Amino acid sequence: MFKYFFVLAILWISIANAQNKPEDASGKFQVSGTHAGTYPSNNYSGFGDIKWKFKTNGKVFSSPAICKDIAYVGSEDHNLYAVNVSTGKLLWKFTTGGAVHSSPAVYKNAVYFGSFDGFYYALNAANGKLIWKFKTGGERKVGAKSLWGMGPKGQYMDDPFDFFLSSPVLDLSDKSLTVYFGSSDGNLYALNAHTGKKKWAFKTNGIIHTSPALYQGKVYFGSWDTYLYALDARSGKLQWKFKTGVQPVYHLLEGIQSSPVCAGGLAYFGSRDGFFYALDATTGKQAWKYGADNSWVLTTAAIKDGKVYIGTSDTYLFLAFDAKTGKEKFRYKTTGYVYSSPAISGNVAFFGDFTGILSAIDLGSGKLKDKFTTDSRTKNASKVLNAKGNIDFNYLTKGKDLSLYATTVYGMDKLYTLGPIVSSPAISNSVIYFGTADGYLYAVNLK
Fold first, then answer.
1. Residues of the chain with pLDDT > 70: what percent?
2. Distances in Å between the alpha carbon of 364 and those of 263, 264, 331, 345?
3. Domains with residue ranges and CATH for the chain
């Protein structure tokens, strides 16, 4: 990612970094309509035509939730949208006071999500009317003064790669129905999902933008304070915490941006310290870890048939591991950063990358079966990507001063013209849904 090029240029040294994600690979705690990680199989071979695409007025980092023939998705334009899945027409929208970067969760007649205005909301899923809203201590991006050593010296800079807010997760095994989510105020909240009344809150020492995972009576989540936490889901009491690595120089902000997933007695998550971890879900003891060549690991893992699948940022990889041992099974090189968590149907994994490609990977061979290209990538790739069609920072910002934060902003603005797929896909009735950073929600037929 850009940070490494900045530090190289400045210091000439090498530096050793939806929505609602799957809580339990068994499906026990899955909420209808949310991004599930794994989906029923129809033996898909690749992509058909575009069924429709719906335009918002802001970047779409939120991952869509599909429930009862409605697609729900948030946008940076401050709205949560409800779109008819058959026609692509707007059913309703709800306007908040900030960007909607969390991914909605839908259960029965309610849709839950968070906004950068500092509130988490519950709406009537059919008409968008407010049921309740809960005020946090405030939502913001992570950042630092002189981020990654960039100038102007001493200026505070938002991290341009902090895309998400924590997405709500509901505990369906709880008769009173609890909704959990994290906040930039450092708390993990548990609310009564019917009323929005707080049950408890657990305070960490960092921003929480990961989405929690529920598994065997515990709630798991990561914080920018570099710890993964396991709490008792009913009381909020700490069961254990696991510290990831840090890089104390250059303000690299190496906390946890990847949301955890649990299965087979293990908790899996990635970190900005350049590792992907598997921990014993009961004790927090490390079972194995994968070193990603100093690349951030931001995606939430998908787990199927004893294998775990992730994407990486700087190294542009889609990877498969043995879930118990961490032995690598295959790797597939993409053309850009992978922040889109995989959706698996049958023997195919679907995920997006930052250059505007949605890939379909055969899980048996690790080879590309098919790919879908956003309209914006088709239009602008020759002006943004290098001759091989890859993200190349030096090519992207040729003639610009790498030591300045403004160069990051310039580079990101150029990349956004490709329609990057940061949103994680959802699959329903042979259609795949995903958001793009040029403001669209796509519905593409699968074949």
1. 90
2. 21, 21, 12, 13
3. 2-446 (2.130.10.10)
